[in-house]
Please model this.
Amino acid sequence: MIIRHRVGEVAQWKQALDENARTREGVGSRGGVLVLFQNATDPREAIVLLEWSDPDRARVHRFKGEEAMPAPLLHERTDVYYLNKVKRLAT
Model:
């Protein structure tokens, strides 16, 4: 699952994201946040890569997670992409 948020301050938003880790894990998130990106040309845009055991559980959590996120931390509509892993490439 990839989530793109436009946030007020990435550090504050990341703290709220971290505080929500146990809730995510309880509904099937694997390994917490795999990668957190910050847009190089727009520091208020954060992109997160998460892995879930089941896409349906990820969808349910998405709505619970957005409700739990303090409103001042999110500045516009969130883009969410549900993905199926095809293959892990060698690094």
About this structure: The longest strand covers residues 29-38.
